[in-house]
């Protein structure tokens, strides 16, 4: 039995033009497009919902991880800062101790100088004409000892000796502070 091509096309056309939905109703062309549009909108809405949930969940994970890292960094910074604050307090205490020791040493030197000045008041004053009295030994072989100095000369030497001792103490203090600073920097 030969099937006519036109008959088969007509049958096919009939089937094609008759789109039936689930309920057995024939739908107009716009309803078919609307059905696909609604289906596409549903797929997009579900996809967006899943994506948004995933992104927000991912953001929450990332935020939590970042907060943990930030907290760890802050704790490490606080620990380093407290060590530096403690080291600074130790250095200040050491500097105050050194300053106290230096001041005590200078006070001691000044007190000794004042005591020596009081002792020197017992010495003879230089004669008014400024020429010393003749002695038995004269010439370059004759040397003057400290006991033979007049008050004015001995007081001048005492003042210079006290100044030199204070400068020496300042130098020793500076050297000590320099070495302490070097030790603190190499820690």
Describe what this molecule looks like in 3D.
The structure is a single chain. The protein has 3 helices and no strands. The chain has 187 residues and is an all-alpha fold. It has one domain. The two termini are 107 Å apart.
Question: TL;DR?
Answer:
By secondary structure, the chain is an all-alpha fold. The protein is 75% helix and 0% strand. It has helices at 5-17, 29-120, 151-186.
Overall pLDDT level: 79
pLDDT under 50 segments (min length 5)? Answer: 11-16
Biggest sheet statistics: none
Shape: rod-shaped
Number of strands: 0
Query: Beta-sheet strand percentage?
Result: under 5%
Helix count, per DSSP?
Answer: 3
Helical amount: over 70%
Q: What is the element string, with H for helices and E for strands?
A: HHH
Overall number of structural domains: 1
Chain oligomer state: single chain
Distance between the termini: 107 Å
- The assigned structural class equals mainly alpha
Whole-number radius of gyration? 54 Å
List keywords for this structure.
187 residues, mainly alpha, 3 helices, 0% strand, rod-shaped
Write the layout of secondary structure elements.
Elements: H1 5-17, H2 29-120, H3 151-186
Helix pairs in contact: 2-3
